[in-house]
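In this supplementary section we document a worked example of the pipeline. Step one takes a protein sequence of length 230 as its only input; no multiple sequence alignment statistics are reported here. Step two produces a three-dimensional model, which step three serialises into structure tokens for compact storage. The input and output of this example are shown verbatim.
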Amino acid sequence: MDEMSIRQQAEFDGKEVHGLINLGFDEIDDDSLPLAKEAFVLLLVCINSHWKLPIGYFLSNGLSSTQKQTFIKHCLSLLHQNNVNVVSLTFDGLSNNFSMAKQLGCNFDDVNSLKTCFPHPSDSNQEIAVFPDPPHMLKLVRNTFGEKRCLFSSEIIDWKYVEALHKLQESEGVHLGNKLRGGHIKFSKQKMKVKLAAQLFSSSVADAIDYCHNKLKLQDFIWSEATVEF
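The serialised model returned by step three reads:
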């Protein structure tokens, strides 16, 4: 499931107005409804073959977590009636998506008691696994790390070591077996590129920082252990 932004525009085809919110119910057929600004799309992806099938979309100007979980339950019930076995639900990191998952029966509040499945609305013996979209979650972690610059665990995880590695490699004209470049540091105009986030968090970047600290004994990399582990 995902939400896609659409152009806000109403058009009349001679019979009805298009471009207004439409959640699949019997809305008033006139132009008193607000313009839709996004489409809530449900896509079925086969896990044992190679096909994808859009199974529904709803035009809205923003859905609440309660509305989303209602759509998900209804969709799962219809698929169950047609002998389609759904095993998981994937969504991006929007906060109300996690609220929706909690309403469905998941629990993300305590890492020691995570519940990442919820019961199937039409079969109490079956559970649906929840998978936050990995590329999107990776970008969110990178964005938070780059913008906040410091994250706190038992020790400080610091963005300055990534910058120090980039500066060192640029000044020496060599790269320590990694793909770290300026685009990884100044990523604000390329936030959608997953590979920049993946390469930033790669083991090769961690190994390079560790090498600068433990082998080269460079002052700029003192106390970088937590960042390397992260």
